[in-house]
Amino acid sequence: MATRLFAPEPTPAAFRNEALARALERAGHRVRVLTTRDPASAGYRDAVRDVSRWPVKRDRQGHVRGYVSYLSFDIPLFFRLLAQRDLAGVVSEPPPTTGVSVMLACAVRRVPYAFYAADVWADATATVENVPWAVRAGVRMMELLVWRRAAVILTISPGVRDRVVELIGPRESIAMVGNGINVEEFTVEGPVAAEQGPYFVYTGTVSEWHGARLFLEAYAEVVRTHPTARMLFFSEGAEKESLEELARDRGLGGVEFRRRLPAADVAAYVRGAVAALSSVAPGQGYDFALPTKIYAATACGVPVIHTGDGAGNELVAENGLGWSVPYDRDELAAAMRAALDGTGRPEPSALRRWTEEHASLDACGDQAVRAMARMF
Question: What range(s) does the Glycosyltransferase subfamily 4-like N-terminal domain occupy (predicted)?
Answer without folding.
Answer: 18-180
